[in-house]
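We close this part of the discussion by returning to an individual protein. In the encoding step, the backbone of a single protein was reduced to a row of integers, each denoting a local shape. The sequence in question and its structure tokens are set out directly beneath this paragraph.
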Amino acid sequence: MIRWAVAFLAAATPAAALDFGTLSTAEHEAFGDEIRALFLSEPELIERALAPERPDPTSFYIEEDKRRLSALEQQLAPETGDVVIGPEGGSTVTAFLGPDEGSKEMAAVLHSLLDPANPLRIIVKFWGPNDRVSAIHQVYGADAFWRAMAGETDPEWDRTEIDELAATLDTDRSDLAQALEMDAPPFLLINGIMIKGPVPPVVIQKYLSQ
């Protein structure tokens, strides 16, 4: 129902603005009663006035991230030489990892997030070639990959087989990282958002839940 006071205010224009000085005492009281009743029936009006919504200062950058990711969607799909761990269909984290200590730390965090109860797909793209680690993954699997990323070796690994396979791989995704306007590894892509690493598990979990 449109109350008298609201209709009165809506009718006022800059050319014929509401002049409270022309109201009689009875009209003042009636107007006040209507405004009071309006706020009681629609308290959100007061809430919006006291706490107006503020624009998210990060929204522009988020939209820019999504635009760039959309334009490069095909290149972001797993390629030969990329490391893919975990099943399709669930949450996915794409990680751009380099040879730096921050990338080693980021790899350890990603490893800690793997949980059979909550399947996570991790796609690792190397920022700077890492053909040998990719070969280790292809020959010996995910556990060996995480160990290699941490700088570990295993005497059981066949170095000749690894080196021969590595010589056939092209794992450098530096051009893709530059096209995404990343500055240095590590970087994560989660749900259309680019995140500069390294970051703790709780940050990754937050973005995965959105």
User: Anything to note?
Assistant: The first helix runs from residue 4 to 11. Residues 91 and 209 are 9 Å apart (CA to CA). Strands lie at 83-85, 91-97, 120-126, 187-190, 193-196.
